[in-house]
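I'd like us to work through together how a protein chain folds, taking it slowly. To get us started, please write out a protein record for me. Label the sequence line and the structure token line clearly, so we can match residues to local backbone shapes. Once you have written the record down, we can walk along the chain together.
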Amino acid sequence: MTHRVVINDEEQYALWPAHKDNAPGWRDAGVSGTEEECLAHIGRVWTDMRPLSLRGRS
């Protein structure tokens, strides 16, 4: 099965089946492939797990 990487407005990433429409509030991150490839990409780019709205707060 092919998957896609999706991202929301809080810059949180998720794995999504390529044949399904995105869930509300999520958009394509421009990466698709196997589950392993997508998870590897997420692991490389999502280095701060905090939602965007919480970053920079002390």
User: Anything to note?
Assistant: The chain has one helix and three strands.
